[in-house]
What we know:
Layout: H1 2-14, H2 19-22, H3 42-64, E1 75-79, H4 84-100, E2 103-107, H5 123-128, E3 131-134, E4 139-141, H6 142-151, H7 167-185, H8 191-206, H9 210-213
Parallel strand pairs: 1-2
Antiparallel strand pairs: 1-3, 3-4
GO molecular function: protein-disulfide reductase activity
Region (Disordered): 53-72
Protein name: Thiol-disulfide oxidoreductase DCC
Amino acid sequence: MATRGAAAAFVIWKHRNNPSLRSISSHHFYPIFKPQMIPKGCRYQIRAIQGESVDRGTQSKNNDEPKPKPENWKIKMLYDGDCPLCMREVDMLKERNEEYGTIKFVDISSNDYSPQENQGLNYETVMGQIHAIQSDGNVVTGVEAFRKLYELVGLGWVYSITKFEPIGKVADAVYDFWAKYRLQVTGRPPIEAILEARKKNKVETCGDSKACKT
Length: 214
């Protein structure tokens, strides 16, 4: 009805100089239309309510989806939380892991890090290169560790080429070079200075508690 009325009004306007159409008023084309019958803003309020109900339904559906349980991890990643470049990769893996729940992340720079709970791997050893512990207790390092980690969050294709020689050896050599000089590259002090600072920090934090210092 509104479309037909609009078309008629356009015809009248177009031929407004035609004497035969001057006497025709616009209400002839809207015999039953009464704007005051529709409260102002009503249509938009209804749309808002409908949209809100859809959003709540979607949110409820998303909340009902099962989340991966952290105890079902298949590999444990030991990472240096004080390394800014390393953390970019760790954050990416953490984001991917929200869907898979296959990786348990352990920050070796934390005062709570326990070698006893991680196959006896102390801070200095893990700082030398990337270490990962599989759920069966097997420890993997270097490029192999990255390969395992990426495979468990659906990104195995990134490191799949390193399974073949001589590419695998080249990748290992590149990573070993990075691991050796990453402290200098990221502007951090030598490992000896870091170890001394950690030792001093533990003494100040733990006091006389021997268990805390180990």
